[in-house]
Amino acid sequence: MSVGRLFLLAGVIYLLLLLGLASLNGALVSLTLPLIVYLGAALIFAPDAPRLRVTRTLSADRILPGGSVEVKLAIQNESAQLEEVLLEDFIPRPLALLDGQTSKIVLLSPGKTLELAYTVTGPRGRYQFQPIRVTAVDHLGLFRRQALLPAPGGFIILPQTPPMRQVAIRPLRTRASAGLIPARIAGSGVDFFGVREYQYGDSLRWVNWHATARHPRRIFTNEFEQERIADVGLVLDARQRHDLWVGDDSLFEHAVRATASLADTFLRDANRVALLTYGAGLNWVFPGYGHLQRERILQALARAQTGESDIFETLDYLPTRLFPAHSQIVLISPLCKEDLGTLVRLRAHGYELLVISPDPIAFERAGMPPDGKHVATATRLARLERTLLLNRLRQAGVQIVDWSVDKPLDQAVLVSLGRVPKWARPVR
Amino acid sequence: MIARVTTFCILLAAAAAVIGFVLAGAWQIGVLAAGLGGLWLVALRRRWGAATSLLLLGFILLAAFGVSLPGGALWAPLCLVAALAAWDLDRFAGRLRGVGARAVSTEGAEAAPDETDETDDLTRRHLLRLGVVSALGLILSWAGQAIHFKLNLTVMLVLGFVAILGLSRVVRSLVRESD
After folding, report:
1. Do A284 and A402 fall within a single domain?
2. What are the DSSP E strand ranges found in A41-165?
3. Residue of A71, A305, A319, A324 with fewest CB within 10 Å of its CB?
4. pLDDT at position B114, please?
5. Of A70, A148, A78, which is closest to residue A113 (Cα–Cα)?
6. Which H/E stretch holds residue B85?
7. Does residue B112 carry a pLDDT above 60?
8. The complex's ipTM?
9. Closest residue to A34, CB basis, from B80, B129, B173
């Protein structure tokens, strides 16, 4: 902008000079004097290259959705006086400014420190701030010097973790420590597992008197199923082709929230949980326990983005070796018919497979006009196709939670996997 | 404050041109000058930033045309300097507006107290610099109109060539050093 102004002034001065010379008119030449003085003043008071020290402080480095972060920039002038300096900080997209200013135009004396403060909020994601741009101009705005000053800083907005009750899983193999997952092994527990002959040391409280009565001279005792912790591998499907958008709502965001909830639930039950994000590439969080692992998984989920890749277009390249043999795999995916073969193979390899499938048809249908004839037919056909796919997976022994995302995941899991009390079952 | 001073400068430039042309008998050009002034005021209200450069050019051309008329030596430099100041202030207000509505504080209603102080300080200093530059330019221009000496064509051409060459160097160095 200042260069354009400079050329304008210079052009006018040339024009007047040439006109004055051509017409031998001194008055015209003298009209250029105010313009030359103006240019001269800009040249004399031209700013030096700005040398500033910038410190960025953030009120938090991780927040939950709906929270806000206050960003403070302390900018100290280490050069000579800057007559007019424009300081611009750039908010990473798609953060939104809640309060304050991201740019300021001030006069900065030597050694003076200026503070710029603002508050931002935004959706799930990891955000890194860019360098701030400093533009120093003279008072007349003709002469400009610009610099980018590094002011590193960043924070994470974690995904929401809607609360969930226990998810009923039964992997073939469990770990040694006591937990809440039925281990398919007799031992101390609460669920009835079987009956065996009484051995010395068994508690008399667990003697099965009915069985004993039928066998004279032999005593039988009840066995209970041990409950242990398990290895759970969460696989989040981040393939671009599965991400649907209805307005501002994304099906992938629902899947991310579901994954966060599942990770939270499994870790709360002391299981060893790993996360694999399968999309443009593979993002792997090694198996772990406890709060630290929860944080790792939530941070990975905060960064999760959908993406396209020729290699990972289907689930064929799902790296199953990352998961311990016979462990529990939980796939969070809307599913498509190409996935059937891979999932059946996984099941055949001995993995216990649970698929949480956000229903893409119900999700997309919600954003369409309700009275469309063709829409209704198309929906019915798509629904048939999906039901067929889910039934074939069920036949292969895959546990399926068909989740309509307008309902809480907890409710869908309870209906699909939980033991519903007799009084709560629907009347047919 | 900037808006008031800018309006004053536009009115001064237009009034100088209108009075000058009407007194010289060229009332049609006076009407044109009044129209340009009115247009500039509208542009100021509507924030037509790009139009101000054209309007400045218009006033410079009016001043160049009127400087040879009777009394033109007095009012034409005044018209040019006032238009230049209005153009500068409009750009300055634009730069302040660019950093957000609250920092503009020309009305002072929306700005926080410290921001008002900072902007006012900046505005004061800008006006001071512009005032000094404008006054100096005006005095020099008036002095240039008053001082007459005869030069032969060769000397004048040489002086003109030197002036253009010097100015070119200044502009080139400004462009090169400016980012």
Report:
1. yes
2. 52-58, 62-63, 69-77, 82-88, 96-100, 103-108, 113-121, 125-128, 132-137, 144-149, 154-157
3. A319
4. 53
5. A78
6. helix B72-97
7. no
8. 0.84
9. B80
In sequence order, which residues have a C-beta less than 8 Å from that of residue A224 and are 6 or more positions away? A186, A187, A188, A189, A190, A191, A192, A193, A206
Cα A405 from chain centroid (whole Å): 17
Read off the pLDDT of residues A142-182 as tens digits, 9 standing for 90 and up: 778 888 889 899 999 999 998 888 887 778 777 767 777 77
Q: Pairing relation of β-strands A103-108 and A220-228? A: unpaired
Q: Which residue has the tokens 């902008």?
A: A1
Q: How many CB pairs under 8 A join A and B?
A: 164
In this prediction, residue A277 carries a pLDDT of 93
Residue range A91-97: mean pLDDT, rounded: 89
Contacts of B100 in chain A (CB under 8 A): 101-103
Final residue in a domain of this structure, among A168, A199, A228: A228
Residue A163 counted as domain residue? no
Give how many domains chain A has, as a whole number: 4
d(CA B90, CA B101): 16
Closest of A276, A47, A268 to residue A141, by C-alpha = A47
Instruction: Tell me which amino acid residue A232 is.
Output: V
Q: Do B145 and A27 touch (CB under 8 A)?
A: yes
**With contacts defined as CB-CB under 8 Å, which chain A residues touch B173?**
43
What does the alpha-carbon distance between residue B81 and residue B138 come to, in Å, rounded to a whole number? 7
* Average pLDDT for chain A: 86
Phi-psi category of residue B105: left, alpha or beta, with phi > 0 → left and psi -120 to 50 → alpha:
left
| CATH number of residue A146's parent domain | 2.60.40.10
The reply to whether A194 and A302 lie within a common domain is no
Q: Do residues A293 and A384 both lie within one domain?
A: yes
Decide: residue B162, CB within 10 A, 0-12 exposed, 13-18 middle, 19+ buried. exposed
Torsional class of A290: left (φ above 0), alpha (ψ -120 to 50), beta (otherwise): left
Nearest by CB to A34, which of B118, B137, B173? B137
Q: Flag if A84 and B68 touch (Cβ within 8 Å).
A: no
Question: Domain for residue A269, yes or no?
Answer: yes
Spatial CA neighbour of A95 closest among A128, A56, A59, A134? A128
Tens digits of residue pLDDT in A38-60: 988 888 887 878 888 899 999 99
- pTM, full prediction: 0.72
Q: Are residues A247 and A118 in the same domain?
A: no
Shared-domain flag, residues A198 and A237: no
Q: Which residues of B, range 138-167, sit inside 8 Å of A by Cβ?
A: 138, 140-141, 143-145, 148, 156-157, 160, 163-164, 167
**B31 Cα to chain A: minimum distance (Å):** 22
A165 part of a folded domain: no
Find chain B residues with C-beta within 8 A of A106's C-beta. Answer: 118, 122
- Both A144 and A187 in one domain: the answer is no
Say if residue A76 is in the same domain as residue A121: yes
Query: In sequence order, which residues have a C-beta less than 8 Å from that of residue A188 and are 6 or more positions away?
Result: A224, A226
Q: Look at A84 and B76 and tell me if their CB atoms are within 8 Å.
A: no
Q: Tell me if A289 is assigned to some domain.
A: yes
List the domain range (segments joined by +) for residue A224. Answer: 178-228
Which of A3-17, A35-49, B27-41, B141-155 holds the top average pLDDT? Answer: B27-41
Say yes or no: A278 and A396 in one domain.
Answer: yes
Amino acid in position A276: L
- Picking from B56, B88, B102, the nearest residue to A101 by CB comes out as B102
